[in-house]
Each structure stands twice: as structure tokens, then as C-alpha cells.
Amino acid sequence: MTSTKKEPVLVVLQLAGGNDALNTIVPYGNPKYYDNRPNVMISQDQVLPINDEIGFNPNMGPMKRLFDEGHLAVIQGVGYPSGSRSHFRSMDIWHTCEPNKVGDEGWLGRVVRELDPTQENVLTAVNFGRGLPRALVAPGVPVASVGNLETYGVLTGIDDVDQRLKALDVFSKVYSPMIGQGPVLDYLAHTGLDALKGADILSAAPEMYSSTVEYGGDDVGQYMRNIVQTHLAGFGSRVFYTTAPYNSFDTHAGQLANHTRLWSETSRAVADFYDDLEEHNAGEDVMLLVFTEFGRRVHDNGAGTDHGAGGHAFIIGKNVKGGLYGEYPSLDDDKLDEGDLQFNTDFRSLYTTILEKWMGLDAKPIVNGAFEHIDFI
User: Fold this and answer.
1) What's the chain's Rg over C-alpha atoms?
2) H-type helices in 293-361, by residue range?
3) Which residues of the chain have pLDDT under 50?
4) How many domains does the chain have?
5) Rounded (10°) CA dihedral 40, 44, 49, 53
6) Domain assignment of residue 208, yes or no
7) Three-state DSSP class for 316?
8) Between helices 161-175 and 183-202, what is the axis angle to 10°?
9) Of 111, 49, 78, 40, residue with least CA distance to 290
10) 92 and 229 in one domain?
11) Burial of 232 (0-12, 13-18, 19+ CB in 10 A)
């Protein structure tokens, strides 16, 4: 009997800049929240309650709907030992699973190498956005990085097929002689050739897609739409990555207005992504991880919040067991870490659960150790 089960797919959305956990999942039942947030707080009557203690930011209605339907898990108090308030160092730790040294391989790069050890598919992993996240960087691992799927491709303005193939052949001859000239040139050559192949294949995805779901015009909405387009095209991609615009969640000032816009856009994009997959009967094999590199300080700075710790992560999917996981970090003064929330869920437990219970991989060599599972799958 032929199996119709599809390979599991992981999508990652990074909220770059350090999202404010307290104003995302709001501890509105705790007076200490309002004591610490005289200026940058969400009033009780605005919160979308989960229970008598905590609730969603009022601009997260679409994600609250997924939570109520049982398809969104909130992982509370996520972090790592000896948290860093540096964007670059904290992101490096999340991306490489190396909290004690500077890592040279991304955790998802290792995943792609496990999934496609012979590099048969240049589209096993696709990033949507500028640059390539450290999480996807690993020697010998091809990753397509796309700025705009509708215009992505090589020499797509040449309509004549024969002329286009000849032009592409010229490009490949530019890259090929570099192979064998040293590790750096080898990497650039293979990356260039893989990019040519990947661009040509991906350029067909928008033409193969139609949907009644209308995404927002912001970057996150468009990239989440692009991910669905590529997934539905059936290119065999197993890992997708995208990032909210660079450091947009770094809300030192003007937080209330900025956070309102950011979560309005992001929450809509996440729900549209889920609904789009559902419309195409393609949600069973897709799981979405939403994370940020750290939380913010417990006490506001008057107009915003500064770098802190103890953030939240979200897992969304048809096969996710929705609900609350981990404990909400204490706001008691003696439980804070120099004004920060204490983390109680190691992010590598989050990765380990996804890798072993969803992707079917041994997580230990990927996350550099053994960590407990979380029961959201």
C-alpha cells in the first residue's frame, strides 16, 4: 500500500529586536505588572483573556483565535542560562545553540545537512528576506535566500527559452572554474551554482498558486504568503525561514504605537498563513515556530522598554496541542534577575521537541546536548 503521508515541514518566523513578553502575553491579573509599567502597559479592559491571570495583547486577535481553536501553543519564559542583552550575541546563541562560545554552524544548517546529506535538492531550505540568518549557515549546505518571490529569478526578462538557457550557461561557466581553488572559492562557486538552480525553480511558484486569503501588504504578510506559495508548489522544501523587518521589535521608545502596529501585522500574517494552508488542505505537514532573541526589562523606561530576558515563543500548526507551556516568570522582586524575568524553559528544549517529535531527527548533535521535551506535539 502506497503511503500518502508527506514529509514534515518547519517554518520559522523570527521577531527581530527582542519582543516585549510582558506586553505580548500580558499578566493583567498581577498588580506588580502595573507597578512596573506605569507608562508602557496594556490596561485590563483591553487584554484578550486566556485565564484570570494572563491574556493576549489586544492586537493579537487572529492568533488568539488559533489559540482558542487549539492550534497555537504559548511557550512561556523561554531563554537560556546567563542571558545576554546584546542583540548580536543573543541571536548568535539562538541560531547556533552555542551559549558558551561563538558558534560556526547554524542549527537549521545542521538540520538541512541531515535531511539532504548529498545536496540533491537546492531548495531543501529557503529563506525569505535580505541576507541569510546564521541559523541556516553551515558549510556545504545550499540555502536559497529570496527577497521577492514574484521577481526572483535569473534573467527572467529574456522570454526566448533558448536565449535564456544560453545566458544561464554563461553564468554557470563563470562559477564553475572557481571549484577546487580553495575553501572560500569552493563555497562561493557552489553557492552561486545552487542559487542559479534555485532561482530558476522558485520563479515558477507564484504562477502555480491561487487563494482567497488576502494577506496584509507588510513584509511579514508577504513573506508568509511566499512560503505558502513555495510549499504548495511541491519543490520538496523542508525548512522555511523569515524575519520581521530588521530589529523592528527593538522598542526602546514609542513602544505602544510600534507594538500595536507590529502585532497587528504579525498576528494577521500568522493567521492568514494558517488559513491559507487550510484552504489548500496542506496544513497537516507544516509547523510554525515564532521566536525572539530575548524579552525586555520588567520596568519601563518611560516611553519603551530596554533589553531583558524571559521571552515567549509560539508554536502554530494543525498537529500542535495548543495551550500554555512552562510557567509565566515571576514578577516578585526577589525572583527577578537584575530587573529581568527569569527564564524557565531552555530554548534548546523547544528545538529538541520540534526536531525529534516533528522532524524525526536526533536532536543531540544539532542542539549540542540532551534537553527535555515539551508536550506541544
Assistant:
1) 21
2) 347-353
3) 1-4, 153-161, 164-165, 167-168, 170-172, 174-193, 196
4) 2
5) 90
6) no
7) strand
8) 160
9) 78
10) yes
11) middle
- Residue 238 CA to residue 117 CA, distance in Å, equals 13
What type of residue sits at position 209? Y
Does residue 176 fall inside a structural domain? yes
Helix axes 255-279 and 219-232, enclosed angle (nearest 10): 20
Name the nearest CA neighbour of 126 among 207, 261, 20, 238: 238
Rounded CA-CA distance 319/146 in Å is: 28
Grid cell for residue 326: 512552562
Same domain, 179 and 99: no
Tell me which residue has cell 533558448.
162
Q: Please give the C-alpha separations between residue 20 and each of 300, 310, 312, 328, 369, in angstroms, as whole numbers.
A: 10, 9, 9, 14, 28
CB 26 within 8 A of CB 54: yes
In degrees rounded to 5, what are phi and psi of residue 345?
-125, 115
SS3 state of residue 373:
coil
Tell me which residue range forms the domain holding 256: 9-147+217-367
Separation of alpha carbons 56 and 49, rounded Å: 6
Q: What is the Cα–Cα distance from 162 to 198, expressed in whole angstroms? A: 19
Report the C-alpha gap between 103 and 368 in whole angstroms: 11
Cell of 267: 498576528
The maximal CA–CA distance of the chain, rounded, in angstroms, is 71
pLDDT at 339: 87
CA distances from 356 to 124, 228, 251, 372 (A): 18, 24, 35, 11
Alpha-carbon span 61 to 98, nearest angstrom: 35
Do 110 and 183 belong to one domain?
A: no
By C-alpha distance, which of 20, 61, 25 is closest to 269? 61
For 177, the 3-state DSSP assignment is helix
Read off the pTM: 0.88
Question: What is the predicted pLDDT for the residue at 205?
Answer: 85
Q: d(Cα 282, Cα 182) in Å, to the nearest integer? A: 43
